[in-house]
Amino acid sequence: MPRAKPRVKKVVLAYSGGLDTSVILKWLEDEYDCEVVTFTADIGQGEELEPARAKAETYGVKEIYIEDLCEEFVRDYVFPMFRANAIYEGEYLLGTSIARPLIAKRLVEIAQETGADAISHGATGKGNDQVRFELGAYALNPDIQIIAPWREWDLNSRQKLLAYAEQHGIAVEQKQGKKSPYSMDANLLHISYEGGILEDPWSEPEESMWRWSVSPEKAPDKAEILEIDFVKGDPIAINGQTLSPASLLAELNKIGGANGIGRDDIVENRYVGMKSRGCYETPGGTILLKAHRAIESITLDREVAHLKDELMPKYAAMIYNGYWFSPEREMMQKMIDSSQQTVNGCVRLKLYKGSVTVLGRKSETDSLFDETIATFEEDDGAYDQKDAEGFIRLNALRLRIANRNKTK
Known about the structure:
The protein is built from twelve helices and 14 strands. By secondary structure, it is α/β, with parallel strands linked by helices.
């Protein structure tokens, strides 16, 4: 039996001003006979957002929110995630995943501020984003109503959306030139591409698809050297210049993209059950991950580092699946953040034709690397090599016993 349609007086819509959300705005007014508040977030997607305001005003929206969330996005979401070195299924740097909890948070907060009893989004019923938005919203407000038009209406193609728009006088901008065949999503951490020829996992992406990076073959023939300073696990400066979180990530995107860094082509397992092929450009994030692991290599205790690596896949899956506001993620974040208190220092990197190579790492205050012990030269008794014999024999004891049992 289908769920009864909730009674809604006011709804906050995550609004881009594009075809889908413009249709959703009108559809909500008609289907739910409700007032719509629009919310448009700037998280570094690189698009002018004021046209979204103009469109919303044209459609009679009285409460319009357009907010620059770039610094909050990088400071409170991207950087905490990178403290964990999070990668989903060994490759994906979670660029789309980590943006969704912030948008969900603001949707819920704006609903509270405006007296709305529901929120709405344009995520489809096949993807992960619907899960991420809604799990986040319910975690922050258990009583919030959520309207997901793609799970309710029959406008399941671009042609039907265009016909609806024409029927209801919704303006659709026809951009000059060839329209991209890909579904794209961008923020300060990455840009993603899905659909088109990418739906065949054997098809190679067209070079013209990539927006942020040159191909490694066309990158400069001279390597670029840079240094990144870290304080408590977070990057704070590039080549000695202190930058805000958003500015630092934007600068690394620029530098990395110019050197052909950060492209990835992945077939991933969506939380809703299907496999999906996507391509991603994450130049700044690729550089940061390499640098962060390098500074951790001299500042983290061995067992702490290994424990972090063991827990990382679980942490990454939480973010991918939409559990940013879950108690288990928050508990794990406290442990990760605790480990980062000594992750202070500088990493020197070489960027060359798509590769990132660590050239050096140092920490004036927290390095655990002791040259007097690690040296292959005479160590003046700092390490007694004879001690290794007992260490080896004790650790071999169970192996020797097991072998004897095999030969009985």
